[in-house]
Design a protein that fits this description.
- By secondary structure, the chain is of the alpha/beta class.
- It has 3 domains: 200 residues, no CATH class; 72 residues, Serine Threonine Protein Phosphatase 5, Tetratricopeptide repeat, CATH 1.25.40; 119 residues, 2-Layer Sandwich (60s Ribosomal Protein L30, Chain: A).
- It contains 16 helices and 11 strands.
- Strands 1, 2, 3, 4, 5, 6 and 7 form a 7-stranded mixed sheet that branches.
- A hairpin with a 4-residue loop joins β6 and β7.
- The protein is globular and about 65 Å long.
Length: 408
């Protein structure tokens, strides 16, 4: 008898063993998510979440699972992991993804992690998603920052169902939350319906469907990822080609794609094309009823950031926002936000002043918007990052949002 025959026999006996175990009152497969609520060092939290995720897929006793792993590899792809609050890829989300992949390779050989590429989609049986978000739980005592909640989900692609889900709390022992170059350079918050679907999928209970809107766009996500990798590596022409390729597909009308075209055109010095691309970003944001733009101001003032490398594009942004809002005949609430530095009262007043500055500038571009816009200041009450570092890490907290509202 050869090794394959022995393995098949073992698996057949394993099925019998599993039935016997179930008759004795113990299950062979977890029926719910793995929840690890005690705060752990980051590396240990990743290990425990990954192991908990895999444990839910085990239909055989451990010794037979090892036999099966040698005979029946299960191909998997990992959609790059993100920060759930911002939708950004950061250094620590990249670290999370790498450590999950390393744990799977070293301890769970039944899974074969394939590159996140178009060619892998037809081969993969499973899709793994993962997010991190600052948790409301946990102590955060002694001046320490609140821990991060890690969410991992394993989706069976044939049934489009979440097969397993695990979460764990990771202490923030100096984790690097700096966004990657693409997200740091982005003028807008790119957390759209696709990324929101990814985030919901990562937190979904086993046995429930994965988000349909997100899953239908996984194929183009592989193209977006390759383009973004090129952008982060400063290969801007390759990035532009990739984003244009994604945009040509039925599912390519996404903020990540249009924003990538804009960023790449800027880096290549194609300013006319860049302005056209930004107009499409704004139009899609209006279609989603919300657009968050990173207008940065000098500290404590209503003056745009002094460095023209940062603020030089602002007049064009305002021109395109006014043009698209006028063309769409929408009314907008211009909402100012600040980072978590200073008193609540000071930041509420400052954010309102900044929102009014943007509103007035829009009215200067299109007079009709004077009657169609209003200004609101929320201070730091709706921070996305909340670090209070006042640098690239929390740039999204110093944004101005354009929310579509009913016209009076």
């Amino acid at each position: 008898m050869n090794k394959s025959s022995i393995a098949r026999s073992a698996l057949q006996w394993g099925a019998v063993a599993c039935v016997l175990v179930m008759l004795e009152g113990a299950g062979c497969q977890s029926t719910g998510p793995t929840v690890i609520s005690n705060e752990l060092p980051f590396d240990q939290a990743v290990i425990d979440a990954t192991d908990g995720l895999v444990a839910q897929t085990q239909k055989l006793p451990a010794f037979l699972a090892k036999v099966e792993a040698k005979v029946n590899k299960k191909p998997m792809i990992i959609d790059p992991m993100i920060d759930a609050a911002s939708g950004q890829q950061t250094r620590v989300t990249r670290q999370l993804e790498q450590k999950v992949a390393e744990r799977l390779a070293s301890q769970h050989p039944q899974f074969e992690v394939l590159p996140f590429q178009s060619a892998s989609l037809s081969k993969a049986q499973y899709l793994l998603t993962g997010t991190m978000v600052r948790s409301a739980a946990g102590s955060g005592s002694g001046g320490a920052r609140k821990p991060f909640q890690i969410n991992l989900a394993l989706v069976e692609l044939s049934s489009r169902t979440v097969l397993a889900q695990a979460s764990a709390l990771a202490r923030d022992d100096g984790l690097d939350t700096s966004p990657s170059a693409y997200y740091q350079d982005s003028p807008v918050l790119v957390k759209d319906k696709v990324l929101e679907g990814y985030i919901r999928t990562s937190a979904a209970r086993p046995g429930t469907p994965a988000d349909r809107f997100y899953l239908e766009r996984v194929s183009v996500a592989t193209v977006i990822d390759q383009a973004t990798t090129s952008y982060n590596a400063e290969r801007y022409q390759d990035a532009l080609s990739g984003y244009r390729s994604a945009m040509s597909t039925p599912a390519g009308e996404q903020l990540r794609v249009l924003n990538g075209v804009y960023l790449s055109e800027v880096k290549l010095g194609h300013m006319v094309e860049a302005e056209q691309a930004f107009g499409r970003v704004v139009a899609l944001g209006i279609q989603y009823n919300e657009l968050g733009v990173k207008f940065l101001f000098n500290p404590g003032t209503t003056d745009f950031w002094s460095d023209p490398k940062v603020s030089g594009a602002y007049p064009m942004w305002l021109r395109q926002i006014a043009r698209e809002a006028q063309g769409a005949k929408v009314c907008m609430n211009v909402v100012g936000h600040t980072s978590r530095t200073g008193s609540e009262q000071l930041n509420d007043a400052l954010s309102l002043k900044r929102a009014n500055v943007i509103r007035q500038r829009l009215g200067g571009e299109a007079a009709v918007l004077n009657a169609r816009t209003q200004a609101t200041g929320l201070g730091f009450r709706e921070n996305i990052v909340g670090s209070g570092t006042d640098n690239a890490i929390d740039a999204l907290d110093r944004r101005v949002e354009f929310k579509i509202v009913p016209c009076q």
